[in-house]
Write a structure and sequence with these properties.
The complex is a heterodimer.
Chain A: H1 2-40, H2 43-50, E1 55-57, H3 64-74, H4 80-105, H5 109-112, H6 119-154, H7 172-190, H8 194-216, E2 224-229, E3 235-237, E4 244-251, E5 257-260, E6 288-294, H9 299-327
Antiparallel strand pairs in A: 1-3, 2-6, 4-5, 4-6
Chain B: E1 3-14, E2 17-28, E3 32-36, H1 43-50, E4 58-63, H2 72-75, E5 78-81, H3 93-103, H4 109-118, H5 132-145, E6 150-154, H6 162-179, E7 182-187, H7 190-196, E8 199-204, E9 207-213, H8 214-220, E10 221-227, E11 237-245, E12 249-256, E13 266-268, H9 272-280
Parallel strand pairs in B: 3-7, 3-8, 5-6, 6-7
Antiparallel strand pairs in B: 1-2, 1-4, 8-9, 10-12, 10-13, 11-12
Helix pairs in contact in B: 4-5, 5-6
The chains are: A alpha+beta, B alpha/beta.
Chain lengths: 329, 295
């Protein structure tokens, strides 16, 4: 039975492998080049010195100049990230959805379900082989992208905890890929034609991904609140902390948000432009900076939760798919 | 006599429509049986029930005295060639036989290969590149490789040309005779069946109209031609299957239990095709209630 599953789908597995090899051919050189530039700009040492605390002394060097330079050189690479976000969906569409749907659409289930192997066994092996290939592929690409993105995350602007960047590295892509494949398989047992199954997979995948990302992920654990003064600031936020900042702004003494999405810090005895420290835009004494965030130290915990949810949903879908195959009548 | 396939009040519905209803029949071992009926009569439904692809909604179906629905033990005794002979088109015949060997506890790969070699079908070519007739032969060889005790074929020759159809049926008869396999073959091409089958099952509008041994059925049915005056039926008629009337004469296809003695009537032999067509005709074609034989 494993022989059959492999023989039937080896072409798709081969295409997957070729796709991953092409990606690697693109990512390994650029990843190495990024690392080279990163070190050349002195960012390695500079970022290392910043540590991972959320706040650092105001006088500390935030590596701003070098990191701006790095980002202006490699920022365009983040566009490739869109591709990484889509990869799990592609696996669901072209690997999961046809698995059962094509058999039934072409009537070959009548041949294979009447051999001396039960349908439950057939489904289990076939889904197992598909799942194993998806697991290996997503493991390679999830960890590969993590490696590739590290310099960009460390350079501050595209922290690994941020939306989209969180979704394309670590273990999350494994969860997404397994889920997409399971959803495709399940959709194929409900709509036993390839195109409707693919459509259902597309809709279902986007629905759960968007819903969880926007509604659930910020609340996996209670967010932390950080406040710090505007005037006579002795501390500043650490760009290397890797925190996921959910919202921030300036609040007045009563706690009312007066300017959202803004942060001001004035050094003691500042002179020159800006010395008024926001007085011209209505900042008065008693106002303070406020931010709601998930600390960067929770990154792997959140990765685990995100992956776990998608794996659990995938397991449920596969169970339902096997049941549907066994009871199809 | 051992019964290979037995159904009792078997029914299957899709939504609210019965695709098969009150189907009771028994297929003895060693027969080559034809399952006949127009499209949509329930032939595929019956075969799918027999091979466990479908679960009955009413009654029961038993193959070798077991329930075939998802029963691996039965499936390994039954060869099935589904409609349009579905095969993995990118597989070669050789790979399909490998599949057969891996999916069945007992599979005679050598036999399957031998069959293909006899009819000159290349084993190394993807079956999607073979002609429809050759593909049907590969499907038959795959089914025969299981060395089944019952072989079910759903419209195996519907989509292939007459010459290939004849070759296919000859091959089928050959292996059936050689191995003693019981065969149940559905078709709506009547001419093919006359030569090949010795048992007949006629399905129409989801119900069984006629079941039995072909020679026995032919022996007890007669085409009777007699006066068109609506007079009494000749003695010996048990059932009028179909009647046609003109002013001058009546033509009946009737089931008899004795030879015809009435000199006003003449009896003629019927063919399998006559029989099938008579039983497939709707009850509406029997206008005169007087012809009905009281139960």
């Amino acid at each position: 039975m494993i022989w059959l599953a492999w023989r039937q789908h080896r072409k798709q597995a081969l295409f997957t492998a070729i796709g991953l090899a092409l990606l690697a051919a693109l990512m390994v050189p650029t990843g190495l080049a990024m690392r080279h530039t990163f070190a050349g700009l002195g960012l390695d040492d500079c970022v290392g010195a910043l540590g991972t605390a959320s706040m650092i002394p105001a006088a500390a060097d935030t590596c701003g100049k070098a990191s701006t330079q790095f980002n202006s050189q490699y920022g365009v690479m983040t566009l490739i990230g869109v591709l990484f976000l889509v990869l799990p969906l592609l696996a669901g569409l072209f690997w999961g959805a046809p698995l059962v749907a094509r058999e039934i659409e072409q009537g070959t289930h009548r041949m294979v379900w009447t051999q001396g192997v039960s349908r439950g066994h057939w489904a289990l092996v076939k889904f197992g082989v598909a799942g194993a290939v998806a697991l290996v592929a997503s493991l390679v690409y999830g960890l590969g992208v993590s490696w590739w993105l590290t310099p960009m995350s460390q350079a501050g602007q595209h922290g690994r905890f941020n939306l989209f960047f969180f979704d394309m590295q670590g273990t999350a892509p494994i969860g997404y890929t397994i889920f997409a494949v399971a959803l495709g398989i399940f959709a194929g047992t409900v709509w036993p034609k390839v195109l409707p199954a693919m459509s259902a997979t597309l809709v279902g995948f986007l629905a759960l991904r968007i819903a969880l990302t926007t509604l659930a992920r910020p609340h996996y654990l209670p967010a932390h609140v950080l406040t710090f003064p505007i005037e006579d600031a002795t501390e500043q936020t650490n760009p290397a902390a890797g925190d996921w900042i959910l919202s921030y702004g300036i609040r007045d003494a009563t706690g009312k948000m007066i300017t959202a999405n803004a942060q001001i810090a004035c050094a003691p005895d500042a002179t020159g432009p800006g010395a008024a420290c926001g007085a011209d835009i209505g900042i008065t004494s008693g106002n303070y900076n406020w931010q709601l965030y998930q600390p960067g130290s929770r990154y792997w915990l959140f990765q685990g939760i995100e992956t776990g949810i998608f794996i659990a949903v995938a397991a449920l879908l596969l169970y339902l798919a096997i049941r549907r195959v066994r009871r199809a009548a | 006599m051992e019964i290979v396939l037995e159904t009792d009040q078997l029914g299957k519905k899709y939504g609210k429509t019965w695709a098969l209803r009150d189907c009771s029949l028994r297929l003895p071992t060693g027969r080559v049986a034809a399952l006949v009926g127009p499209n949509g009569a329930g032939k595929s439904t019956l075969l799918h029930l027999a091979v466990g692809l479908l679960r009955p909604d009413a009654g029961s179906v038993r193959v070798f005295d077991r329930t075939p629905y998802d029963d691996v033990a039965v499936l390994s005794e039954v060869g099935f060639v589904a409609q349009d002979t579905p095969l993995y088109r990118d597989f070669t015949a050789e790979e399909l036989f490998t599949m057969g060997a891996k999916l069945n506890r007992r599979f005679d790969t050598a036999l399957a290969h031998r069959r293909l070699a006899q009819i000159g079908i290349p084993r190394g070519k993807p079956v999607g590149k073979l002609s429809g007739g050759q593909r049907a032969q590969v499907a038959l060889a795959l089914a025969m490789g299981k060395r089944p005790r019952l072989l079910l074929l759903d419209e195996p020759v519907a989509s292939i040309d007459p010459l290939a159809r004849r070759e296919f049926l000859e091959a089928l008869m050959g292996v059936a005779a050689e191995t003693g396999t019981t065969v149940l073959l559905s078709s709506h091409i009547l001419a093919d069946l006359e030569r090949t089958c010795d048992y007949l099952i006629v399905l129409h509008a989801a119900q069984v109209r006629l079941v039995g041994d072909v020679s026995a059925l032919l022996a007890e049915h007669r085409r009777l031609v007699g006066p068109g005056d609506g007079g009494p039926l000749p003695a010996g008629v048990v059932q009028v299957v179909r009647a046609e009337h003109t002013d001058r004469q009546s033509t009946l296809l009737a089931r008899m239990n004795a030879a015809l003695r009435d000199p006003a009537w003449k009896a003629y032999d019927v063919t399998v095709e006559d029989l099938i067509l008579a039983y497939l005709a709707d009850g509406d074609s029997r206008p005169r209630a007087a012809w009905e034989v009281p139960a």
